[in-house]
Amino acid sequence: MLDRECRGTGTSFAALAVALAASLSATPAFAQTAPAGPQAGPATEPTAPGSDAAPPEVPTTDAAPATRTGTDLDGEREVIITGTRIRTSGFTAPTPTTMIGEEQIAANAQPNLFNTIAQLPSLQGSTGAATGTFSTSSGQQGLSSFSLRGLGTIRTLTLLDGQRVVGANVTGVPDISMFPQLLVKRVDVVNGGASASYGSDAVGGVVNFITDTRFTGFKANIQGGVTHYGDDGQGLIQAAFGKAFLDDRLHFIVSGEYDHEAGVGPGDFGLDLAGQRDWYRATTLLNTGVTNNGLPQFNYRDFAQPYQYALYGLINNGPLQGIAFDRGGTPFAFNYGSNGVPLGNGRVSNCYPGNSFCIGGDLSGAPGSGASLKSALERAVGFGRLSYDFAENNEIYVTVNIAQVKTSNNPSPGYNRPNLTVQCANPYLPQVIRDRCATAGITSFNFGTSNGAFPDPLVSTDRRQYRFVAGVKGEFGLAGTNWAYDGYYQHGITKSDIDVDDIVLQNRYVAATNAISLNGAIVCADPVARAAGCQPINVFGGFTPSEAALAYVTPENGPFQHTKLTQDVVSLNFSGEPVNLWAGPLSVAFGGEYRREYYRVNADPYGAGVSDISPYDADYPADPLLNAPLGSNWAAGNYKNGSGKYDVWEGFLELNLPLIDSEQLGRANLNGAARMTHYSTSGTVWAWKVGGTWDTPVEGVRLRAVTSRDVRAPNLSELFAAPTVTTLPNFNDPFRNVAVQAFQNTIGNPDLDPEIARNTEVGIVLSRPSWAPGLSLSLDYYTIKLNGVISTLTADQIVRFCFEGNDTFCGGFVLDSPVQGGNFINVQPFNLASWKTSGFDIEASYQWQRPLGLPGSFTIRALATHIREFKVNAGIAGVDVVDQAGANTGNTPDWKVLGIQTYSTDRFSFTLQERWFSDGVFGNQYVVCTTACPVSTGNHPTIDFNKMKGALYIDIGGSAKVSENFEAFFKVDNLFDKDPEPSPQTNTGLDVNPALYDTLGRIYRAGVRLRF
After folding, report:
1. Chain centroid to CA 364: how far?
2. Average pLDDT in the 73-102 region?
3. For a Cys staple, 724 with which of 21, 99, 153, 746, CB 3.0–4.6 Å?
4. Is 617 exposed, middle or buried (0-12, 13-18, 19+ CB in 10 A)?
5. Where are stretches of biased composition, namely Low complexity (predicted)?
């Protein structure tokens, strides 16, 4: 099992040194970028006369060409930049592409290459080890995957050497943690639709990792890191070896890496985060439950106090409402916030009945701060490649990539239970409370507790991937013309296991808390439960249950989900120049691909439900309290069984027609492609693109434009997903204006159709004119319209729209069930929604040789993305369009900027980096008012405050060359330890958005690199 926590106080490089020595950890900074010129050539600019060192390689965006050729490290191989299938010297594709080179990857010093790429402004909503940590059931904890344009990870196609990679879970997205990262020499990020060239999923774009297939020699990295708060100790060790045999015809490459990141968390109840972090304020959107009194329905407040439960128990209804219990079980009057007074009907005066909160008071039982801030992560990756050049520029090869990634996180502390019915005769109940029951004439009362003495649930994932590729590629002549070919077969397997420890079986918990005295002993009141092994629990105080009671309520064999995914791909592509035309050769690329995707998932019988539980008798014995056929017995993690598969046949044709090539008019080309794809689940669909570039007669100025029709087919999860059950502990029932515990059941839909997108981009590029040879600028406008979006409404929207009179939504939920676990909301995806987003990408860079007469070079670079709009139309009558641009609770801020400044010589380098995104709002659907408010609705709820600050993070890093083969480096991220802004929720979750904000604080990293 991974380490659950690495606590400590203070910080310092001393702690960093300890972490480095003990765990061999590491981390990188961001890549700088300086576009290459329009001509074919090396990725780096030649050394200026008189300089002491070549300028640092800089990640190239399409101020440099989107596709260009040049020499590889061995001086013989072509460099083909992703963005098109055309392979023609000097050709520039119309789709903007950003390139991040090997030197920039090293300079950013991250333990996972994913962290470097995710900093690009066009990537919005990517997932990693710091996201999903509040979840038990998602299965995406620690999954490193990219999202371009805020369209989601499932709409970004990630490739390894231009080839598909088997998914790491049923959504089909790969895990970047499993790639052979030390061998990556370049990453191409295509900012725009590329389905016509690369196939389904490339709606937002493509991220292509290019490895060094001709590497020779030995190299290694050793790196360590730790946060300012003494946690998330990191250790990374990487090594690669390559050698050529048989007169440089047989090439063997092998690499391996091990990365351990201890993670951050959990915190504790109340306001206590992990370490000494003090930014958590339990910020919540408090729901008054009143929509038409002229006041806002939602109020933004810090220090929200749940009034239905307390750390060690609270009577929350009836004549005894307001009596709480301390650690020793002694009753006391609970300190409600807002000067609240219990009303005896489950509500509290001066507080917020819509989601059962007060402000201030006793916050000790609030569980929000107890979630992990970052999953612990451990990964081991092995890679090997063997190739043989059977003729000049022709090779046959095999690759093997085997990887394992483990993660763990604590989604919340204890067990939050707001709706327990307690009998006054319970022998654990203090006599004074039993006497008050008699005086009040009651035999039972409602009770809520955080079960502060219970162990914290722990979610552990184990993903193992086995990927095998056999291929052949090269060149041949045909009718006096040159052609290139590339064919491969890939078989990929992912085995993913999720195990949850210390989670409660709800019906057993209820039986264990209902105790009686029998023959002088305290036992469970239900004789059926006693016969099945029930052991009583005292919930009136901080008494740790006995081992037998914990084994009964939170058995060692908890929820699990075992998933196997397989992907088989056969692909063959050709590219050539069949004929010369008036302005150059006509270039052609064509090919086809077959792909088969399959998954199977098995879950434990208590969660999944089985009609015959006998096969599981050893670990999951039959229990009359557990609803075996239906499952969903756990408080969270009720995984289900399922399976599904589909086949895909594809064929494509791409052409590049040169239009003009003259000194007077410049150089222009027209690029077009079409792809036909047949899915076994949804039939045939077409993708296409038309675009072009014009190198104008004005020196260094290029214009480009492209429009495309892109597609994404529904993935295995959307089509065939077994139901996923998520616990909603404080769900607002607007019909009764009370908070209830409910389950959200998310299920697949086999009748889904592919999504269809229309991408358009227009841009202008200034690339290294003679009057400013170090200058590169680019400005691109983009617009994307996505129809038939596979999406769902939230559980809150479904219930709210029914409450407001839309009967369409009223058949899929129950909120007033008297049966334990009977409240539920069904959520299912449909092709109803449409999205529209548009904005600008801007990039600028300049490079000076021998600045101010000093040796070396100085480079500045800035990349920015501005999102003008991100409109989401649910496609359902009565549901308004919502613009999510600038909603900082999501992942699409109005502006996102990355700036880098680097000074470099042949002996050392120093980099300053800025990461910034703009101020925003909680949501554009809100109507802000304090008085005279309109009626609050599900489409346009009223609120008293709707602003969310952006953030600026400063990073520094540097390296020093100790010898020809040895380099030392350091990196400090979030130098000024900036805290995240609250991302308020309407329940008790941790109010933070790790998709945008840094939740860990200052991080120190250092290490060494060896090259021979």
Report:
1. 31
2. 68
3. 746
4. exposed
5. 32-50
> What pTM did the predictor assign?
0.87
Nearest CA to 794 out of 860, 758, 742 is that of 742
What residues make up the domain containing 132? 18-261+382-405
Q: Find out whether 979 and 951 touch, Cβ atoms under 8 Å.
A: no
DSSP annotation of 887: B
3-state secondary structure of 717: helix
Q: Does residue 139 belong to any structural domain of this protein?
A: yes
The number of domains in the chain is 1
Q: Rg of the chain over CA atoms, in angstroms?
A: 30
| DSSP string across 102-114 | HHHHHHT--SSHH
Beta carbons of 54 and 46 less than 8 angstroms apart: yes
Tokens of 86: 């055309």
Determine how many CB atoms are found less than 10 A away from the CB of residue 820: 16
Q: Number of C-alpha atoms within 13 angstroms, CB side, residue 971?
A: 27
Element (H, E) at 477: strand 458-478
Q: Find how far residue 881's CA is from the centre of its chain.
A: 25
Q: Which residue has the higher pLDDT, 1006 or 721?
A: 1006
Cis peptide, bond prior to residue 266, ω within 30 of zero: yes
* Residue 44 belongs to a domain: yes
Q: Tens digit of pLDDT for each residue in 55-74?
A: 334 444 444 333 333 333 33
Indicate the residue type of 641.
Answer: N
pLDDT digits (tens, 9 = 90+) for 906-937: 999 999 999 999 999 999 999 999 999 999 99
Decide if 944 contacts 930 (C-beta within 8 A): yes
Q: Is residue 115 part of a domain?
A: yes
Rounded Cα gap, residues 838 and 819, in angstroms: 48
With H, G, I as helix, E, B as strand and everything else as coil, classify residue 373: coil
Q: Is 978 helix (H, G, I), strand (E, B) or coil?
A: coil
Q: Domain containing 399 — which CATH number?
A: 2.170.130.10
Any domain includes 1006: no
Classify residue 13 by its DSSP letter.
H
Distance in angstroms (rounded) separating the CA atoms of residues 903 and 863? 18
Summarised one tens digit per residue, pLDDT across range 651-687 is 999 999 999 999 999 999 999 999 999 999 989 999 9
Instruction: Identify the DSSP state of 178.
Output: G
Q: Please state, in angstroms and as integers, the Cα–Cα distance from residue 543 to each residue in 428, 538, 686, 912, following that order.
A: 11, 7, 64, 52
CA 399 – CA 387 distance, rounded (Å): 9
| CA separation for the pair 430, 452 (Å, rounded) | 19
